[in-house]
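Students often ask why we bother encoding 3D structure as a string. The short answer is that it lets us treat folding as translation between two languages. Here is a chain of 304 residues written in the first language.
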Amino acid sequence: MINRVCLETMGFSRKEAEGKFFLKLFFKPKVHNLVSSLLEEAKEPPFLTTYEENWQAKDGDERLISFTVASLRDKYGITTNYTVTGLDITMFRKMEEELWDYRTSLEEQIKRRTTELVASQTRLSGIMETAEDAIISVNSDQQILMFNQGAEKIFSYSADEVVGKSLGLLMPETFRSSHAKHIHNFGESGHTSRRMLERSEILGQRKDGSVFTAEANISQLEIEGEKIFTAILRDVTERKIIETELRKSLEEKEILLQEVHHRVKNNLQVISSLFTLQSNSSNDPERLALLRESQHRIQSMASF
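And here it is in the second language, the structure alphabet:
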């Protein structure tokens, strides 16, 4: 006996299948011994066995079947017949193999991307740690998350001393509230970066309490729903001192130049007056013309 599902799966008609030898109908010769051993195994308790093997359909196509062989015995315990129940798992196995291949490919991609990410993070970490500028990251509560070697050098704090503490620790107390507000407003602005000096002068405070002027850029990045703010800060105290000295020097030179100009102008006025006296004491037309021309040139020079 053979049921309709088996016939449809293997492509046989009932007439073609009934009465045929089970092994020859559904299996290639190379697995006859294996299937025969399964039949023999089913004769022993628990009188059934399960296996997966390719069955051959009428058109020669192979179907992977998970089947169970159970032996039927008479009252004397002698096996008289076998019952074979099976499930076509060809598509399931194909899907399983495709999923396995996809999983393997995905794992390889993840491994490769992880390696690339670790390498990138290592390079970035090296750059950040060796940078002369201070690089400081804080969360939305303005708690310090990262404090590089440049920051340690500028602020004289170690990273262990400040990580987890408020950013306000690094600035004068009078500026803490306004600075916190600036960062909050920047977070709400939607901009990814901003030069902080465009808004106000940044003042930092070292561990010893000394205050210095800083030039800073701030950026924000959202990671897993939390905003992370990163500031790159440079101590410009020495530059400010040099700028002040240059400005003072220029002012002094400007004053000196004005004094020189004033004295030269006075001297030219004196010379012009002398030419006037010379003109008044001379009746020679040629001499008078020469004196007047010289006086005119002196007056032109004095007018600048």
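Translate back mentally: Strands lie at 48-56, 62-73, 79-88, 134-138, 144-147, 193-195, 202-205, 211-223, 226-235. Keep this in mind for the problem set.
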